[in-house]
Amino acid sequence: MSDSKEFLEYILKQIVDKPDEVQITEQEGEQTFIYQVRVGKGDMGKVIGKHGQNVDAIRTLISAVSAKAGKKRAILEIIE
Predict the structure, then answer these.
(1) Out of 37, 51, 76, 80, which could bridge 44 as a Cys pair, Cβ 3.0 to 4.6 Å?
(2) What is the mean pLDDT of residues 32-61?
(3) Phi/psi class of residue 73: alpha, beta or left (left: φ > 0; alpha: ψ in -120 to 50)?
(4) Where do the DSSP E strands lie in 1-80?
(5) 42: helix, coil or strand?
(6) Of 15, 10, 7, 3, nearest in space to 54 by CA
């Protein structure tokens, strides 16, 4: 598990009501990290947050961590 994936998993498990249901799949390309996040039923709203504030903050954080790893982009997909 990469540092980025561990970091994302830690953040999400703090936000949701069902942390045991958080699943993250990470794919790494030459210039990109793609994170597919699956959360428990009813937790999508917690991840997105009011007016999308939580998901925007999460995207900013994973972009910063990915940039530190030498990647130009980080893509976050959230599935319930």
Answers:
(1) 80
(2) 94
(3) beta
(4) 23-28, 32-38, 73-79
(5) coil
(6) 15
Q: Which two tokens stand for residue 44?
A: 């999508």
Band (44; pLDDT cuts 50, 70, 90): very high
Alpha-carbon distance 52 to 7, whole Å?
20
- CB of 49 closer than 8 Å to CB of 7: no
Distance CA 68, CA 63 (A): 9
CA angle 43, 4, 73 (to 5 degrees): 95
- Residue labelled with tokens 């030498």: 70
User: pTM of the full predicted structure?
Assistant: 0.85
Domains delineated in the chain: 3-79 (3.30.300.20)
Structure tokens at 15: 């936000």
